[in-house]
Amino acid sequence: MIPDSQTIRTAATEAASQLIGRPLRPGQRLVTSGLIDSLSVLKLIGLLEKKLRVVIPPETLQPEDFDDVDLIVETVERVAKPAA
Amino acid sequence: MAFNSVLYLGLLGVVAAVFWLLPARWRRGFALLSSVAFYASWGLAFVWLPLLVAGIVHIAGERITAESTGKKRWSRLGMAGVLALLIVFKYRGFIADNLHALGFSFGAHPHLMFAAIAFPIGISFYSFEAIAYLVDLRQGRVTMQRFADLCLFFYFWPNILSGPIVRARELMPQLSFQKRFEPRFVFEGMDRIVWGLVQKNVIANMLGIWVDRGFDANGPITLPTRDAWLLAIGFALQIYFDFSAYTNMAIGAARLLGVTLPENFRQPYHAATPPEFWARWHMTLSRWVRDYLFFPINAKHAGAPLPLYLSLLGVMALVGLWHGAGWGFLVWGALHGAYLVLYRAYESWKDAEGAAHEQRIAGWFWRILTLTAATAAWVPFRATSLGKAWTIWGSMFWRWSGRGSLGAGFCAFVAVVAGFCAIEPWLVRKLSDIEENAGTQGPSVFRVLVRPIAYSIGLLLFLLCDEHNTQFIYSQF
Questions:
Q1: ipTM score of the complex?
Q2: How many domains does chain B have?
Q3: Does the beta-carbon distance from B308 to A39 stay under 8 Å?
Q4: To the nearest whole angstrom, how far is the Cα of B227 from the nearest Cα of chain A?
Q5: Which of B141, B298, B302 sits opposite A46 (nearest CB)?
Q6: Is B204 found in the same domain as B169?
Q7: Domain span at A39
Q8: Which residues contact A2 (CB under 8 A, 6 or more apart)?
Q9: Residues of B classed as catalytic
Q10: Is residue B72 included in any domain, yes or no?
Q11: Mind listing the pLDDT tens digit for each residue in B140-150?
Q12: Where would you tag: which of A25, B31, B142, B342 has the fewest CB atoms within 10 A of its CB?
């Protein structure tokens, strides 16, 4: 089962904060601000998969789908599948 | 008709004025007409090519939207059609030459009938926009557009020649031209255009006079070390100011119509690492490469080291070839790929060691290495042959020799321009503070007095330096 929005939001905030090495500010942009690059986006996907126990198929994704917490929630809800 | 010609500047004023005087419903048609006329001014022979690209994209796009199962197939077919045009018009001479050379080296005498054909200006840029549109359409990021709107998207004159490479989702909504006229469009557009003219005619073209002589194929075989470094630095500065000038003028022209194009540069020579250089240099190309090549490749392998390093080398070599059909461009791209691999390997090592924060000394090491490596990589990009590039590198790195012969004028000019580059971030911040304090509406000293004076000085400098006017470097790509 895919977790609810609030759980995804919390996991996204934690994962992004872990990647940038400090607490993420509300509304802070990750990719377009240059805070993280495309390789870090792949790490972010890995962290989200682990925290939420889902699979995020990357084929139809672009780094800017993970630009802020709102977008991450929207992306996960759109493409994530429950982990086997 | 070059952006830095008096004729273009005059016509730009007329087109912008007529555009805003027209009723909103006629603006789209007028923009398309003026864009086609602008593209035709570079030669009538290829005026149909963006139309053909729009046709291919439209046919493939219709099928992508209509079919539920064959989306990928039609997207690939559309992309293949666009790439085929790019290869035929841009690379067939290069391919033929190298096949000939290969044939001769094996004792064969191939007769490949590839006629030399002219290069359709801007094809590399609008081809990439077309590919991005097809991928985005398949992924549901954009909706299917009418044929006429696609034509306007590809022909749109401010960015058809050399970018910025725009995404349909950021430009197409703006091409409905629903905005009401605001005086700030004129200020914002003129700021970029006048600064672009100064960058091109006063800085880039002046540097170009010395750089052209230094890189001349018939020039001296070996160079003193100081001269080789000065030439490499001179070209690094020339190409930055030349391309940045073009981009500023493109962004400015679009702004006069109320359209916002994405930025292409953010003081690239201040980059602290090789990946940061690419986040600051030709940003719209970097974004395209990231979204449509690098990320999909590495997402499949979850960022595993070997595919990552191979993809960095391969993708950057392709970026080099995208600039031009020549070995020098390929070497330039591959070198940048190697720098990125080196930095990613260092990052992996750092992560494995558990070093949470980079030490200051390592930070400075990477900053200096990035600047030096980027400067050295420009040599094969500019040199007339790989042999010439090798000779200049030799003079720079391992065949140190005596006093330089390039005049004090060049040294002083390079020093002044490099100094300007060094303080550019501070200047940008200062100007933005002044602009902010002046407010966005109503008259202010800055708007009423300082801007007209700055525009007059800028235009005067542009005209005074018009004697050495040359084409923009990136318009050849």
A1: 0.89
A2: 2
A3: yes
A4: 36
A5: B302
A6: no
A7: 5-82
A8: A52, A54, A76, A77, A80, A81, A82
A9: 323
A10: yes
A11: 999 999 999 99
A12: A25
